[in-house]
UniProtKB/TrEMBL annotation:
Keywords: Glycosyltransferase, Transferase. The keyword rRNA-binding does not apply. GO terms for molecular function: hexosyltransferase activity. It comes from Shinella granuli. This is Exopolysaccharide biosynthesis WecB/TagA/CpsF family protein. InterPro entries: WecG_TagA_CpsF (IPR004629).
Amino acid sequence: MNLVSGNITASQRDILGLPVCDLGWADAFAFAEEVATMPFGQSVIAFINAGNANLMMRDPEYRAVLERQIVLPDGDGVDIASMVFHGRRFPANLTSIAFVPALLTYIAKPMRVALIGAQSETLLRAADTLRQHTPWHEFLPIADGHFDEGQSDAIMEQVRAADIDILLVSMGSPAQEKWIDRHVGPGHARLVLSLGPLFDALAGSTPPMPETIRRFRLGWLYRLVKEPSRLPQRKAQIAFAYHVLRYRLSGSMMARDGANTAKAGTL
């Protein structure tokens, strides 16, 4: 399976039946910049990790939404799944917390960036951090993540009126991906990203992971040592491992590998 946009072509690996792009950092930045600076069209990027992969396995609607979006690998669990299914890791671990600030640094052309999600105070602090990080872009905190569903169209009218290039949405999975699928369309932004706890990290609520830990992909060990209270969350990783093993033994992957080449993600 392949993702094609302009000058960038990326193969997609089957991870539990979901096509996941195997772009490295440089190609991922180039692709995102290309779609963000186009005069028309829209691309939606989501991130898959062990936690939301578990959600996908029991929520067919969520899976269908992700299949309509461009999915990037996020976390050690997905890397392990790639090793099991394809014999190699992904070229890069494109976590949203690392990817988005780096992407905004990479894009030299001034962009108008809207933020939706998180608590009101966290949203404002995150926008301020991004302004300091990349002052050549303009950041507009549109709405926190605690609005009623009925307010969605009005919020997106604000986004449309603001002539946004990039839209960042952080509401938690699967809510953020489903909300984008229902309410965000061409004319709202050229590039849309659904994020994990990015705004919390930017606001200082979540301490950043050391670069050395990230490089050697030992995030799971770092989080366990730093936050032993997260031990119950290891159950999610065990559940993910179960899904990976079951999928590998079922033969579903081989059947999908034999399917026709597909293009996905750009609207």
